[in-house]
# Entry
Amino acid sequence: LIGIILFPGLIWQINEVWCFFLFSRGLALQKLDLINRIQQLTPTTKGQWGKMTVAQMLAHCCVTYEMIYETIHPRPGFFARLMLKMFVKSAVVGPKPYPKNGRTAPAFLVTDERDFAVEKKRLIDYLNRTQQLGEAHFQLKESHSFGPLTKEEWNVLFYKHLDHHLTQFGV
# Structure
């Protein structure tokens, strides 16, 4: 099985692969699978599509967690949140995989150079923190852009984005 455990019993089929998610302490081995994929990256790993370097991709993946745990990204205004809920939310939290070379939200654009080792460590630390907090922490937790999300929606949001970019870089 490929994926990351968030909690037991929830299975989503993404990219024709059964994916488990991150919250369950009892299924931490699947979280290690995702971390092992991250560990396979090197500073010279090239993307199979897109313009980001591997360090920029890792920093880009950290933005999701920065929006949850940090206060460095301003919340979108009321009208922007309404539009995001109406037109973007289903693509982000639904089971359909992201397309290659899709548009990136401005807050997620990383165009400056980044330190590979720093970004890799930050992403792994965020994954560990998310698992340690557990599923109850995320049930109906307010999303920066979409309002309250169920734990299932958080699961898909976390996994789908990471899987998309790790696949982009061949791991």
The helical segments are 28-39, 54-69, 78-87, 89-93, 116-133, 135-138, 151-168. The chain has seven helices and four strands. The longest helix spans residues 116-133.
